[in-house]
Design a protein that fits this description.
binds guanosine-5'-monophosphate; alpha/beta; Diaminopimelate Epimerase, Chain A, domain 1; DHHA1_dom; 6-stranded parallel beta sheet; binds manganese (II) ion; 12 strands
């Protein structure tokens, strides 16, 4: 759904604009937000980016990062004021206001025009305007397309391009997921053309681990990986104490789930982590098995067919037991996903 004409009209005059994205922003969430912010600033709008929580250090290089406001209890009043005073509120890379914690209610009640730019399945209908496409590989791809559709392709500079590249690169798994379309490659060709240093961005995101993060990965793979060949499933469950022992920082567990999925014959992988306030889960699959449906039905979550997340307020052991107990009912579906 692309309300581009209404968006053009909305943004004709300089406006007070706020951009937000999901809890614990990843490279697509932050990259699409900062890419859009860079563009709208060039168009003369006043733009504030607010994230509902902190995000990994390996994203801090992005142009515009220095102006991001990270919501916390301490700046609640300031954030409420900005939301109330914004004429346009962009919501990027999430489909449900519950994904942005306290800020969700503030935005639901805000007077400004809400614009959703997103590629997740089953979007909640809270926005006034939508620029969403569930086939898009990344929200950053949609932001690129949106800027072009606004007739402003020539405003995409290397700063904007670097942010968008980061989002597309990570959400496509470095251009290997089936979502990596011709459009994606054409966008990347254009970003290379304008001078975006793509290999440097890859290094900044993927080759910036601390020693402890790598040792944690080693520990998780050696001692915590559970492989269930009967269900073509592998998972890793991590306790709060283990996170503490390895001084785990925001983003340190990102990518862990992909190692479980990289085993031959495994089509369903999960990482289940006790984050103290709640147990958070990351799900990945290959083939037809929908982790979006799995997360929605059993763990208050959602996402995409092959990448989704969920949460539970039960203790870690109970969540793991529930996860294992669900597998038999999917046995056939999981077997059918092999070799797809
Ligand atoms: P990740 O496992 O990388 O945190 O998330 C994978 C995908 O699932 C992302 O597209 C993310 O937005 C979505 N996702 C993660 N956690 C949740 C959740 O609790 N609820 C919903 N609806 N989506 C989630
Ligand atoms: Mn995304």
């Amino acid at each position: 759904m692309h309300d581009i004409n209404a968006l053009k009209e909305l943004l004709q005059e300089p406006k007070e604009v706020m951009i937000t994205t999901h809890h614990k922003p990843d490279a697509d969430a932050l990259g699409s937000s900062l890419g859009l912010a860079g563009y709208l600033k060039k168009k003369g709008h006043r733009v504030t980016v607010i994230t509902p929580s902190d995000y990994p250090n390996f994203l801090a290089w992005m142009p515009g990062n220095e102006d991001v406001i990270v919501y916390s209890d301490n700046n609640d009043a300031l954030v409420q004021r900005i939301i109330n005073e914004s004429q346009v509120i962009f919501c990027l890379d999430f489909n449900n206001l519950s994904r942005i914690n306290e800020m969700g209610e503030y935005i639901r009640q805000a007077k400004g025009t809400k614009v959703l730019v997103d590629h997740h399945l089953q979007p909640e209908s809270f926005a006034d305007l939508n620029y969403s496409n569930t086939n898009a590989a990344a929200t950053a791809e949609l932001v690129y397309d949106l800027i072009k559709a606004m007739g402003d392709g020539d405003l995409i500079d290397t700063n904007i391009g670097e942010c968008l590249y980061a989002g597309i690169m990570t959400d496509t798994g470095s251009f290997r997921h089936p979502s990596t379309s011709k459009n994606v490659h054409l966008i990347i060709a254009d970003l290379l053309h304008i001078g975006v240093n793509t290999s440097n961005i890859h290094r900044l995101i993927y080759d910036s681990s601390s020693e402890l993060r790598l040792r944690f990965l080693g520990y998780a793979l050696k001692d915590k990986l559970v492989v269930l060949p009967e269900y073509h499933t592998a998972y890793i469950a991590i306790t709060a104490d283990e996170l503490k022992a390895y001084d785990s920082k925001t983003g340190d567990t990102e990518g862990l789930v992909n190692f479980a999925l990289s085993i031959e014959g495994i089509v369903f992988a999960a990482v289940i982590i006790d984050r103290t306030q709640a147990v958070k889960m990351s799900f990945r699959s290959v083939g037809d098995f929908s982790v979006n449906e799995f997360a929605r039905q059993h763990f208050n979550g959602g996402g995409h067919r092959n990448a989704a997340g969920g949460m539970s307020l039960e203790p870690l052991d109970a969540v793991v037991a529930k996860f294992e107990s669900l597998l038999p009912q999917y046995k056939e579906q999981l077997a059918n996903s092999v070799n797809k």
